[in-house]
Amino acid sequence: xxxCYTAVIITLLRARNFQRHKAVRxxxxxxxxxxxxxxxxxxxxxxxxxxxxxxGECEVLDNLQVAKTATQxxxxxxxxxxxVLYAFVGVKFRNHFRRIMQELWCLEKRYIAPRRFSxxxxxxxxxxxxxxxxxxxxxxxxxx
Length: 144
Prior knowledge:
disordered C terminus, transmembrane helix, GPCR_Rhodpsn, C-C chemokine binding, GPCR_Rhodpsn_7TM, transmembrane
């Protein structure tokens, strides 16, 4: 991971684009969050592995299990944080996401907002409410 992101940063720094520093910030933020989320879990796993075959007190083993669970949860949280990082640090991504959400909001309003029905729509609606034999006007298809 270090070698790949180092190559990405070197390539970005050589670029002549004026937004290269923003891209470098995104890469650095992703790497720092990865390290902050996964390092505690890996240290806990390393400690557990080193002390695996040694006798320990039950309280220490219980505390180690709690630490492994807590740090594992933080490590898995990293998967949720990556999209948030790209959304808030990456300007281009944030602008595209904002535009998509605005378009979806308009679509939602368009379908939820009350509409005036034309006569054709009302006739279709009324014809679907009639029973199969056409004798009932109350919308029930079952007659007794």
